[in-house]
Specification:
This protein has about 120 residues and is mainly beta. Helices cover about 15% and strands about 65% of the residues. About 15% of the residues are buried.
């Protein structure tokens, strides 16, 4: 009788590590966000390198670089800073990746919190 213990241990180790590597937000994502000033249509282009997230957020306010970005397992976070009516607004995003969707919550400066879903562009 042969032992399957090494195979079993390898399978358990891979199963435990899978969540840390399962989510890959790299690529293009789209979202329609219902805000206090109306629906805003966004396209996000994410790049990931060793857990650091960079890229662009594109909306009617223009193209903005993503800063302070990170990806840890299925969690994603970044900052977008836009100019609105002559003011600089810091928008902080936190989300959870699930397949081809990211459920986000974003905090717009100190006056609004918005929940929305971004979908991977086909």
């Amino acid at each position: 009788m042969t032992s399957n213990r090494p195979t079993l241990l390898l399978a358990i180790a891979l199963a435990l590590l899978a969540p840390a590597f399962a989510a890959d937000p790299a690529g293009k994502w789209t979202a329609a966000i219902d805000t206090q000033i109306g629906v805003q249509n966004y396209t996000y282009e994410f790049k990931v390198d060793a857990g650091k997230l960079t890229g662009k957020a594109k909306s009617q306010f223009g193209d903005v670089d993503i800063t302070e970005g990170s990806v840890k397992g299925d969690e994603i976070a970044f900052v977008e800073t836009v100019s609105f009516e002559g003011q600089s607004l810091r928008i902080e995003y936190k989300g959870k990746i699930s397949g081809d969707e990211i459920k986000f919550q974003r905090k717009v400066a100190d006056f609004a919190t918005e929940d929305f879903v971004a979908k991977r562009a086909k």
